[in-house]
Design brief:
This protein is mainly beta. It is built from two helices and eleven strands. The N and C termini lie far apart (48 Å). 15% of the residues are buried. This is Lipoprotein.
Length: 137
């Protein structure tokens, strides 16, 4: 059997789901919400971090159908910029503030912040990372 075909089958069986949100839809959904960072969340045993209390949001799946996605700590956000560079951070660490998208690259190093002017964004993708972490509270 062709090695390429085997790789393609493995990739399709084990790949992570990816969804998109247009920049316009993202701004509509997250532009006017109040972000509450006061609640710590446990993801593994006694490991806690601060995350925003986003419950559900609307995304588009690969078949161009709308879905309501529930927030979880394993969701990652991939932002493609107009210059084709990409930035990745945890979805529950992002906020849209004064036309700037702000997100954390790490749960354990809160100073690792990415700031992106919203006008520089051409594409937003949300991906289930496959990491086996869940909120405990």
């Amino acid at each position: 059997m062709n090695k390429f075909l085997i790789l393609l089958i493995c990739f399709s069986l084990f790949s992570c789901k990816t969804y998109t949100i247009s920049p316009e839809s993202f701004k509509e959904q997250f532009g006017n919400i109040e972000y509450d960072l006061s609640t710590s969340k446990s993801i593994i045993g006694s490991i806690y971090y601060n995350g925003y209390q986003i419950k559900k949001f609307i995304v588009i799946d690969k078949n161009e159908k709308k879905e309501i996605l529930e927030n979880k700590p394993s969701l990652e956000m991939r932002v493609t910029l107009n210059n084709r560079n990409r930035k990745v951070f945890y979805f529950d660490s992002m906020k849209l503030q004064n036309d700037t998208l702000i997100g954390h690259k790490s749960r354990f190093f809160p100073k690792m912040i990415t700031k992106i002017p919203f006008n520089d964004i051409s594409k937003i993708e949300i991906q289930e990372s496959g990491k086996k972490i869940e909120y405990k509270n």
